[in-house]
Amino acid sequence: MIKVVNLHKSFGDLEVLKGIDSEIKKGEVVCVIGASGSGKSTFLRCLNLLEEPTKGDIYIDGVPLMELGKNINSLRQRVGMVFQQFNLFPHMTVMENVTLAPIKLKRMLPEEAEKKATVLLRKVGLPDKDNAYPNQLSGGQKQRVAIARALAMDPEIMLFDEPTSALDPEMVGEVLQVMKQLALEGMTMVVVTHEMGFAREVGDRILFMDGGVIAEEGTPEEIFDNSKHERTRAFLSKVI
Amino acid sequence: MGFLIELYKTLSDAIYFNLIKDDRYLLFIKGLGVSLKLTLYAAILGIIIGLLVAFARMTKNKVLNKIASLYIDIIRGTPAVVQLVIIYYAILGSSSLPKIGVASVAFGINSGAYVAELIRAGIQAVDKGQMEAARSLGFSYGQSMRYIIIPQAIKNILPALVSEFIVLLKETAIAGYIALDDLTRMGDIVRSRTFDAYTPFIVVALMYLYVTSILTYFLGKLERRMSISD
What we know:
The complex is a heterodimer of chains A (240) and B (230).
Chain A: E1 2-11, E2 14-24, E3 29-34, H1 40-46, E4 55-60, E5 63-64, H2 72-77, E6 79-82, H3 94-105, H4 110-123, H5 139-151, E7 157-161, H6 169-184, E8 188-192, H7 196-202, E9 205-210, E10 213-218, H8 220-225, H9 230-239
Parallel strand pairs in A: 3-8, 3-9, 6-7, 7-8
Antiparallel strand pairs in A: 1-2, 1-4, 4-5, 9-10
Chain B: H1 2-20, H2 25-58, H3 62-77, H4 80-92, H5 99-124, H6 128-137, H7 141-171, H8 183-194, H9 198-226
Helix pairs in contact in B: 2-3, 2-5, 2-8, 3-5, 4-5, 5-7, 6-7, 7-9, 8-9
């Protein structure tokens, strides 16, 4: 579904990604782990061109992303994204946050979009917050609304950029639970995370990034229990 | 006792000669009207110029960018009174525009630079993640601005804009330099007739204060309302 070939990204003189090759298949849950500054988030943000790669190619269903030009907007409709800082729209209610994109971009009727949003909000465990503003919600609730907002566009793939890193510890579970449910339903997901328990349990494949490259990849068992690389073992011994 | 009688006589004379005699209070009211009209016209023009310049400053077009920042630098780096006189004599003096029109254009051009910076600051104060979230949903840059960024920026901009217009009202006090009969100049006209400098200018000061107090009151209300959904 997504194919990444020799992806490079530099910020000025700083080379963050030094050649990434990877493929993400439909229905797969790929967890990206690694130390801060290893390039995980940059890699994820390249997948929907929030960061423009310096070199290399990304193909989605065989279509090269770099040649899309203005059509990038319609592509982004098919790729949902959840951010570390939630990025809910603070001037809109929960319901408006979730329905804005389907109404404006998919020309869905407001009633139809609201019906759909109601289903999604129930799914993420927030059936009674329609008229609340984001600042009235806890961090965990905000992130679940953000997930519902992304799902409202019926994405084919969901990107999660450290979705639980800005949460208080007691709220991490509720967000991971929603993500796990999504994975069980067969959603294609790329998750940048520090939650090793989640990666091991839900991930189909783990990418360990170090110094701007994928240092090792494999099934959770291969990475967490039988890692072949010294750097992977060193990282895991520090975080687990 | 004699002191009090003396004071009473001085005060009533001052009020009589500066306000009542020859209906001089009408001069002040007329002057205030001119000042308010001038401020209103200049404010409208300032908003229009400010919007255009703010967007010129934020586009990727380098030429527009340069022109906009040059304009802002020139306006902010020179005294308003100098700008007013230059625009009056050099640019608009030969046209048939009435003086208040010339002054409105001059103050509008002046205010536009400050308004442009307010708008730009207001937009840039919106968290960067908002644009990213909107773009990630598939909104174009323009749609993201319209639905997400601008509505939030307005909350930052509006109160600052009202403050700018309070400043603008006070700034128009230099309109007398091109012999426009605004409130301050009316004070001067009365002074030249009564040879009393204190009373007319205290009246002028109180009238400015009255209007700015009303504006400040609304500014406070506006700020409270804007902060409700944050």
